[in-house]
Write a structure and sequence with these properties.
Low-confidence stretches: 173-191
Mean pLDDT: 85
Order of helices and strands: EEEHEEEEEHEHEHE
Largest sheet: 5 strands, mixed
Number of strands: 11
Helix content: 10-25%
Distance between the termini: 69 Å
Length: about 190
Amino acid sequence: MSTRILVRGGLVVTAAEETHADVLIEDGRIAALAAHGSSAAETWADGADRVLDAAGRYVIPGGVDAHTHMELPFGGTFASDDFETGTRAAAWGGTTTIVDFAVQTVGHTLREGLDAWHAKADGKCAIDYAFHMILSDVDDSSLKEMDLLVEEGVTSFKSFIRSRDQGFSSGVGDVTGGAVAGDRSEGTSGK
């Protein structure tokens, strides 16, 4: 079932300008803008399921928070927000999309990590979401798997280079004196 919402009389802020206009929203997406009081805007009012009065207010696009941590385990603790509480707070602040970090668990595939984070988020988010991917095991298999996740919309990957006992170490380098880039034949400290 299609829904139509009309936001009337606000000062609409776009990437290009500020203009007094009415905004027609169909099925959760902006469909059109028209000058407030125009014949097009009046026609929309007749067919709208809801009409919101924005007179004296700004109508702005939603924000995107491209670096969030919902339910992220780190340093022996967890982020305080889960996908329900964190995205509700974001929505109240005008954020309409978050990009959170999904974590590959050591010994598991990237796919398993991404699926686990989708399970945490699905059906609980008040806004849209996407994921960055944290690599905890970097090897030939996970590097090949990255291409598949990019095709699904994962646009960035993160890997930590530090001691495994601090979590999320990828094995790319060992800051405790091991070699770098997979060559573990000799340490680097003191050389």
